[in-house]
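To the wet lab folks,

You asked to see what we're planning to order before we commit. Fair enough. Below is the target structure as tokens, and below that is the sequence we designed to fit it. If anything looks off to you, flag it before the synthesis order goes out.
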């Protein structure tokens, strides 16, 4: 993963976490407090996938 891809991943996860906090829409076991700018890429991907899977299942 190059630096630009990593930055996109971090920003996407942080935006999603902020939205989930503001709207109380988190849908999985990963805690929002654990999603930070310094979170490892694997954890950020897992958070995004968890939330997408919940969204897709509800559609």
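Sequence we intend to order:
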């Amino acid at each position: 993963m190059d630096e630009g891809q990593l930055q996109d991943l971090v920003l996407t996860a942080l935006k999603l976490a902020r939205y989930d906090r503001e709207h109380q829409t988190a849908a999985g076991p990963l805690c929002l407090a654990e999603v930070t700018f310094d979170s490892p890429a694997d954890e950020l991907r897992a958070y995004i996938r968890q939330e997408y899977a919940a969204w897709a299942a509800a559609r």
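Structural context that might help your review: The chain has two helices and no strands. The radius of gyration is 11 Å.

Thanks,
Computational group
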